[in-house]
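Z., the sequence and structure:
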Amino acid sequence: MSGDKEELVFSNKRGQFIPKNSRNRADLLIEQLTLGQNAWPYNFDRRYEACESFNIFKGKQQIINPVEFPGSKYLKYTMGFEFETSAGLIPEELIFRDGLVPLRDGSISGLEYSSVVITPDNDGLSLLKQQLETLRKYTSFNKECALHIHFGKFPMSEKPIYNLYLMCYYLQNGAGLRSMVPRYTFETQKYKKHHDKNYCGYIPQYGSFKDMFYDLTGMKFNGSYTDPHPADPDRKHKWQINKRYYWINFMNLLCYNVNKTVEFRFLRPTYNLKKIMVWVYIFNAMMQFAEKADRIEPNITFYQILKETYPKEFFEKLWFEGITQLIILTDNQTRSDDLCGSMVEEERKLFNEDEVM
C-alpha cells in the first residue's frame, strides 16, 4: 500500500487498496464492488493448512466490540471455523485483526478463510462475531461451499472417541438429525459440481474402537494417536484420505501430532451468528455427553443429550429458540424444493442475530 490513505480505496476485485484519483467513477465502482476470485493479494506465502500460518497471526487479533454470550460458560472445547467462499477478498489488515487465515481449496472458486483458535469464552465468541461481520461485508458463498467446525481438547482416549463415533452413527439413522439439515446434506454429489465425489457421507458402523481405527486409518491401533496417515504421510495431500469425507471427521484426532481436533463437516455455509452458535452448543453437548457416558444406547436423541448437558433454563432456550428453528428452516427449504439448503434468506427470518445466546 502506498500514497495517502485518503486517496486510496479498497478494490475487492484485486484484494488491495488502489489510488482513488487514477480511475473514473465507473471503473472505481467496478473495482470496489466486483468480488475478486483467483487472486492471492497477501504479503505472505499461501500455505496448506491454517496451523502453518498461526505463528504470523499470533497476538495480532483485536476485538472491537466485546459481547457477552450467556451460554459461553457451558462450552468446554476450543474451536476452529473453516469458512469456504465463492468470491471476495478480505483486506490484509482485517484478516490479521480478525484472525482469518486465507487458504486455497481446489473444490471451491474462492478462498477458504480459516479462523485462528477460538477460545470457548466471551472473548473467543466475540472474535467469531467480528469474523462473520467481515466475511459478510467482503465475501460471498454458493452451493459448492460449506462450513466446517473443528473442536480441540477432546480426550485422545478409546472410550470417549468411540462413544462419540457410536453416538453419531445412531443419530444419523434417527429422524432427529435429518429433520434439522437440508435433504441433500449427506449426498453432496447430488448438487456439487464434482458429481462423482461425496464430501460429507454417512459414517459406517464399527463394532469396536479398534475396528474403527483400522478402517479409518489403514493401521492397527498400537496406542499412538500421532502416527501419520499412510495415504498422506507429509500432510500435503489430505484429499487422498477418502475416509475423511464423512460428516464427522476423526482423522486429525487419530493421526499426526498437530491440529488434534474433531471436525464436523456437514453444515451449509452461513454468516448467521445465532445459527452457528446453535450448532456449536449442539456439538459441545454431544462431545461432553460422549466423555461422560458409560455406554451409548441406539435410541439416543438430541433431546436427551442437550437436556442432560445443560441447565434447564438454557436447555429450554436452546430447544425452543434453536432446534425448533432448525427444523422449521429445513421444512421450509424442502417445501421450496431447496434440497441443498442454499436459501439463506430463510435463516435470516428465523435466527435473529441481535439475540446473543
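The chain has a mean pLDDT of 93. The two ends are 39 Å apart (CA to CA).

Let me know what you think.
H.
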